[in-house]
Amino acid sequence: MSFNNTNTDILIAGAFAAFTVDVLVYPLDTIKTRLQSPDYKRLYTKSSTNALPRSLFRGLYQGIGSVILATIPSSGAFFTTYEGTKSILSHTSLPTPITHSVASSAGELVSCFILTPAEVLKQNAQMVSHPQRSPSSNKIFEGNATILALRKFNSPTQLWRGYTALAGRNLPFTAMQFPMFEHLRTSIQTYRKRKGIATGSMWEAALVTAVSAALAGSVAAVITTPIDVVKTRIMLSAADSDQPRGETQQKAVKAIEAQGRDAKAEIEKAQQAARGGRAGGLAVGREIWRTEGVKGLFRGGALRGVWTALGSGLYLGVYESGRRYLEGRRVGVAEGLRVE
């Protein structure tokens, strides 16, 4: 059977795939963000034993709401752009891997535009420590990690400061993943047909797609880990990139001192974070290399590889099965109407 999906099929399948992945593998993404944060050693290691404290594994679903709301339309936009661009370029003389790279890159540019604010908010929410609601409070959202993270931003434009960082990570990742993915999927399908074990079922297509996506995704994820670390640092510092001045700063100093904390040290740290928020990816990468070395640039790489293998496998596997199901259902309904 030939599958010719409408944009609606692609949007629905992409949205359902994104929702499934967000719910199932989000905890691994939270742990990865915490491992890659500049405060990792201070917040998530015990200086005496270097063991991982329980706080690393608390609140693993913090910030998921904003991501679900954004990834559903962004995923639909990605697949619509990807499939449309791939269809157009298939009529040219471009090599197939180049076609897949260009199509996936076009999809990512559109997707990142929609996803960036939620991604910045999500990563800052993932770093909120023990969001707890006061028993005497009547405020419904007090203690909510996403709301607490949102309060750190002085302007909506700060939520978009991670666009180049997100696109800078996703473009090379998808440019590597999708050609490998399409090649692996075609190779597996050809092998099964040659051996006479292909069934042509929706479930076979989903499984082949999932395995191919997991293998391709894990390889691309490990290779692009340094870019992911830089992206995480930039997004975590986005809220601090506009610092208070004058009277506002004096009030901040008094408030910090009233709590018995070192105001000078905290202001210096905030100013460093502000410089990081404005710094470009190369500057942030050099700073990580200077202070933490290669290990710092690849921090969380193994977890990112596992997370991406699971996420990509589920994402594209669910997308493929959903796309075929919707196409088959639509064709079946149309044939039934013709018979009547």
Automatic annotation (TrEMBL):
Keyword Acetylation annotated: no
Membrane topology: Multi-pass membrane protein
Source organism per UniProt: Imshaugia aleurites
Protein name: Mitochondrial carrier protein
Subcellular location(s) per record: Membrane
Family label: Belongs to the mitochondrial carrier (TC 2.A.29) family.
Annotated GO CC locations: membrane
One Pfam assignment: Mito_carr
Solcar repeats: 5-88, 95-187, 204-325
Primary residence: membrane
Recorded coiled-coil stretches: none
InterPro entries linked: MCP_dom_sf (IPR023395), MCP_transmembrane (IPR018108)
Statement: the UniProt record of this protein carries the keyword Cell inner membrane: no
Keywords attached to this entry: Membrane, Mitochondrion, Mitochondrion inner membrane, Repeat, Transmembrane, Transmembrane helix, Transport
